[in-house]
Amino acid sequence: MTDRHSPLNAIHVAAGASFTDFAGWQMPVRYSSDLAEHHAVRTAAGIFDLSHMGEIFIVGPEAADALDYALAGKLSATTIGQAKYSLLLDRSGGIIDDVVVYRTGDDRFMVVANASNREVVAAELTDRTAPFECEVFDESDELALIAVQGPRSREILIATDGFAIEGGHPDGRDVGEKLSELKYYRALSGSFRTQPLLIARTGYTGEDGFELYLSPDHAAELWNALTEAGAPLGLVPAGLASRDTLRLEAGMPLYGHELGTETFPVQAGLGRVVATATKGDFVGREAVEAGPAPDARTLVGLVADGKRAARADYEVYASDDSSEVIGVVTSGALSPTLGIPIAIAYVDAAFAAPDTTLSIDIRGKRLSYRVTPLPFYRAKKD
Amino acid sequence: MATESELQYTSEHEWVLVDGTTATVGITAYAAEKLGDVVFVDLPDVGTTLASGSIVGEIESTKSVGELFAPVDGTVLEKNSAVEDTPELVNSDPLGEGWLIKIEFTELPPLLSFDEYTALLGE
User: CATH code for A4-49+143-248?
Assistant: First the structure.
């Protein structure tokens, strides 16, 4: 497979980024220091290129009903401008992908899928919505995505010239006011220097922040405007390495680690995302209602003392001197913010209660971990 | 501190500075860059006997775990406790303050020259 490059690739190369393959895309893993980028997002702000994500539109008079059938959540209950975290389930209740759905009109939704699942999500949505009066368009190649995340994100967007909000002043004088009013998981249509733009108050870092969708042809112009206006406020370009430690601290699941077709939503702590009680038939309903096997493992947060971090696929034991494997780590790192090892693991239900002491084999040495409620880190509200 | 061209190298991306029968060992700038920010270093204790090619320590970054291989047979003379306390030295000065261990050796195996190591990186 040939490598795919973001429309911002030249900017990343010029900035000295190191690259990693992500679902066939060459994306920045870090610019200089992933720890510095992580701390910048927690204390000021970071700017991320997420142009590899998939954007699939469902448009038509029955689009809302179609998504109620295709996805786990009740999308018909959303209002225009609202975003909703949802799941694409298979018939046996497993998770094909986790998505964020933006309602951008009465009859119009944008489903944002993980880059690795863009094709399968587009195909499943096309298939599942066929009986409904709506159409599915995979616009992933027509949209770039830039995220600004961190406590100073709003200030940075306000300091950047060229934004205007649909229905507001064409010169953008009310952008500050509109962005301040914009709630978490809400989005506004607008423009950047005449280019159509969707501004969403969403993210994957556990901080306040915005995600900006626009044409790839104008992504570089937007990136440069944001970095120029944001640099004095502490904005730094941030790569996928910091994105991963940020989302892990925030206890957010990652497809392929915490989520997959072998996982039921309830095991991942996502039972609330499935609207069994409030809507009619949907793909996966029967299996989700029947539930996973009684001995199915459940997702927990784990913390330890010291500096040695458990990583994905390490085995979890009942105690330091037990040889009984009772779980497996799906993500783990030395938390840059907390300074202690943190991990997410699937463990047998009997070992999932908070404060249970478990043991992880870290490359031949056992380390005690303690079950703790997620998230590990929660941003302070201002 | 020696310059890059005065050091010898291994295919495991370690550098070796030979002074008499003492070999100072660290990881190369290339290896440090590939690892990302180093957050934890686990080094063998003074007096430990090392067999060339065996794994004797770990260099962990936020993203991954690098292994420290003994480049020679010998005994650990000294470990860099500054690096254990301040792992980021491996990134900021991999060939200097970021050195890892000093080994007393009896025989030096063939190592790579700077040019040979650079050629290896080009492959």
Answer: 3.30.1360.120
